[in-house]
Design goal:
2 copies of one chain form a homodimer. Chain A is an alpha/beta fold. Chain A folds into 3 domains: about 45 residues, 434 Repressor (Amino-terminal Domain), CATH 1.10.260; about 130 residues, Rossmann fold, CATH 3.40.50.2300; about 140 residues, Response regulator (Rossmann fold, 3-Layer(aba) Sandwich), CATH 3.40.50.2300. Chain A is about 45% helix and about 15% strand. Chain A contains 13 helices and 12 strands. Chain A has a 6-stranded parallel sheet, with helices on both faces. Chain A has a 6-stranded mixed sheet with strand order 7-6-8-9-10-12, with helices on both faces. In chain A, helix 11 links the parallel strand 8 and strand 9. The longest helix of chain A is centred in the N-terminal third of the chain and has 16 residues. The termini of chain A are far apart. The model of chain A has no long low-confidence stretch (mean pLDDT about 95). Chains A and B meet through helix 4, helix 5, strand 2, helix 6 and helix 11 of A and helix 4, helix 5, strand 2, helix 6 and helix 11 of B. Chain B binds a DNA duplex through helix 2 and helix 4. Chains A, B: It comes from Streptomyces filamentosus (Streptomyces roseosporus). Chains A, B: GO terms for molecular function: DNA-binding transcription factor activity; transcription cis-regulatory region binding.
DNA sequence: CGGTATGGATGAAACGATTCACATCGCCGT
DNA sequence: ACGGCGATGTGAATCGTTTCATCCATACCG
């Protein structure tokens, strides 16, 4: 494999000069610059990132650790961070913890071994300090899709409790008095917060807590939603509305109930969460709480870049917690036609 | 940052021994092994991947370059390769060429700079040799989701022409005589092959080529599908069936037409391609040609691993081209209820 | 003409691991 | 007692960059 030394020999200059041509071209005379570039083209030389990293002490990559790469919500979030990172000349390595705390730790150690420049991650576990490995290694990180104490770290999240309330108020205002909450694993903060919001809305309305019927689902995907939908159909009295922890569940629920001849929204109003593209694309467009994925990704990447190199070096870095406001997007699945 | 030297000093051994503990523990006595591990824990030592890479000459990562990370088809494919790679102790770096040949080249050079161990990629451009950079750098690669000459490289693809034919025959057997083909950008091989299959089915049936009505779409996503659906509605006479290059387009088409009161499948039969999860999850489940994403991902990763280290070193490596058979998955969107 | 900036180029040290030729030691068989 | 052997440990060389102290002309100033 051809290295910088070969280029130097070919161009008849020293290795230091070649390095300068690559990194600080303005310091090198035109003529030599041309000679070096010619040599590079001739030999097909490509810089070795690993050697650069070794010298620099860290790589030129960010890590992004999400809970489900199959969920379009995270795909969009990833695209947001990728764009910002690319502008700063950084690459992004996206990994899938698949909602497993063990996998999460595995990837975090991988990130440390790789000496990533920074990490964005959506923690699975709700307790403990999953980011300890990063802390020890002095790798800047931003918590994504979950708010944490600003003494701990930067974070970018949306207000899930508010989101739950928006959904709840909407359903209650439409007269629903028996609302199912289809939810994923309870160890996820999001799952609990959204329920909490729903409960508050119920309380605001002066209704009893038994207005809410919990329907647990194994995972946060469509097939778990279908399953939950089947269980919902068996309930009696049947809820007249259902709020789901995310859109994938909602799409699954809607499909099962639709199949069974239940009319949506007339017999059953359905609300999802995240507002992924497929929510809008459903034949009965799904009412959803918009969770600004791309923006979370962009802002988080921005905070991370700031933490990596503070614009105002003397003041150092101050952790920031950004909380975005979710927004209810009302569509057909929750609003009977006149 | 603590390095192997610090560990060696702390444990009172040489650096070589620490390296042995890490890489060939069986060569080291129990006692020393324990001392070294104690030192590692005490100091919080973490191996530097970049240093290992520099020495080894290549990284322990594979690259996966796909055309749209937002398309669940590729998300599933990626999960397939990730599993196989993980078993071999390799990580995967997933990148998004976004159907742009320029971005594709950009990522390929990135891969070369990183000295990735191997690369899987779904080429955007249909002509030329997009993999030249990899060739020059001697990085093994497998072409994914597109068949190429086995003298050139390994590849894993599905037979898109056959897939198109399956869709076509299905529609023709149901009596459709005017079939729209909603397709993405024509520079993609898949787009052309699937149409070719449809055309063959039409020919087999002894019908004229004007049985097919082309409806171009800008991209291969839902919103382009909606747009195409609107144009389809304006056609007269209106096709009675529509075949789409992928499921995202089909979902978009189906939504627009459904909205306009066109009954699917009675007034308009719809077939997609890929059979992503959302095809099955649609309220009117979408008939689709199953494109085995996970399997493509797994097999391609397998071939790549073989190319990286041939099981039978004396025989060297022989490029292999795997072509999988697609399968028609008939659902409600193409079959009127009795 | 001596002194001194200045712009360009140099080459050695350092980054942190792996590897390999070599050293050491105890033990066995003759 | 000695050569040989296996098991264990050592430390220097190496990978390909970047960086920095240094050096060399050349031009400029007084």
């Amino acid at each position: 494999m051809v290295g910088i030394k070969d280029v130097a020999r070919q161009a008849g200059v020293s290795v230091g000069t070649v390095s300068n041509v690559l990194n600080r071209p303005e310091r090198v005379s035109h003529e030599i610059r041309a000679r070096v570039h010619a040599a590079i083209d001739l030999l097909g030389y490509v810089r070795s990132e690993s050697a650069r990293q070794l010298r620099a002490g860290h790589s030129r990559m960010l890590g992004l650790l999400v809970m489900d790469t199959g969920n379009p919500f995270f795909a969009v979030l990833a695209q947001g961070t990728e764009r910002v990172a690319a502008e700063a000349g950084l690459g992004v390595m996206v990994c899938n913890s698949a909602e497993s705390a063990a996998a999460e730790q595995g990837y975090l150690s991988l990130f440390v071994e790789q000496r990533l420049r920074g990490v964005l991650f959506a923690p699975v576990a709700s307790d403990g300090e999953p980011w300890q490995a990063l802390r020890r290694a002095n790798i800047p990180f931003v918590v994504v899709d979950r708010a944490v104490d600003t003494r701990t770290a930067c974070s970018v999240a949306a207000d899930d409790v508010l989101g739950g309330s928006l959904a709840g108020r909407h359903l209650l205002a439409a007269g629903h008095r028996r609302i199912a909450y289809v939810h994923g694993p309870g160890h996820l903060q999001q799952v609990r917060d959204r329920r909490e919001g729903l409960a508050r809305a119920v309380e605001e309305a002066g209704l009893g807590i038994d207005t809410i019927v919990d329907i647990p689902a194994e995972k946060l995907d469509v097939s778990a939603g279908r399953d939950a939908g089947a269980r919902l159909l068996g309930l009696s009295p049947r809820p007249t509305a259902v709020f789901c922890t995310n859109d994938l569940l909602a799409l699954g629920v809607m499909q099962t109930t639709f199949d069974a001849g239940v009319r949506v929204p007339d017999d059953l109003a359905v609300i999802g969460y995240d507002d992924i593209e497929f929510a809008e694309a459903s034949l009965i467009p799904l009412t959803s709480v918009r969770h600004p994925a791309a923006e979370i990704g962009r802002l988080a990447a921005g905070l991370l870049l700031q933490e990596i190199e503070p614009p105002d070096p003397e003041r150092g870095h101050q952790h920031t917690g950004i909380v975005l406001q979710p927004e209810l997007v009302v569509r057909r699945s929750s609003t009977p036609q006149p």
